[in-house]
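Protocol step 4 of 5: obtain the predicted structure for the target chain.
Materials: sequence only (see below). No template structures provided, no constraints applied. The aim of this step is simply to have a reference model before the mutagenesis design in step 5. Sequence pasted as it appears in the construct record:
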Amino acid sequence: LLRSIPAIWSVAMLSTIIMALAGCTGSRPNKHFVVAIDRSASTDPIRPELCHRFYELVDRAAARKDRLSLWAFDNKPVMIWGPRVPQGTETFNSIMYREFLKAPGRRMTRPAVLLREIVNQTYQNTETEPIAICVLTDGDSEIASDELLLIEVGSELASKPHITLSVIGIKPENRTMWQKAFSRMGNRFNLAGLEEAEQEIEEISRAL
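Step 4 output (structure tokens):
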């Protein structure tokens, strides 16, 4: 019996170590990337760049086995893919061409309506899954009353610590409006012009 005690201890200790290692490797919860691309006419000159940045996010989601949703928006939003884990960028080639590159830009941009719809559809069934919203846009909002809706959504997101919001491609003259609406999110909210896009995408991948 005495001889068996060290062996029992060894098995118990080994089991503990294996469980601890499993907890370390599996402790990172899967993230949900919610990406929206502006297809209004004002983004015609920069839309190829916005689509390129989308592909970078797809690469990261696929590598991490994270879920991804793709939205398009102009005067109204629509979810056109997901949420599911992407297998690679090739999945989106025909979608990018059909929805964002081939079709002419549409009139009017209403990002507040987009974010309201994303909040309504994406978060009603989860309060814990880390969610990274990334809006690829120049930041235009062409309905003055929509600014109040942006502030409303910003207040709601401020109370949800598992959600981040990044706006990539924003024009300098639109920063103040967005900052006013979402400043209560603190460092979970970021604005980036196209020249800052690569750095912001790296930060999105590390966040949460």
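Step 4 remarks: The chain is about 45% helix and 20% strand. The longest strand covers residues 77-84.
Proceed to step 5.
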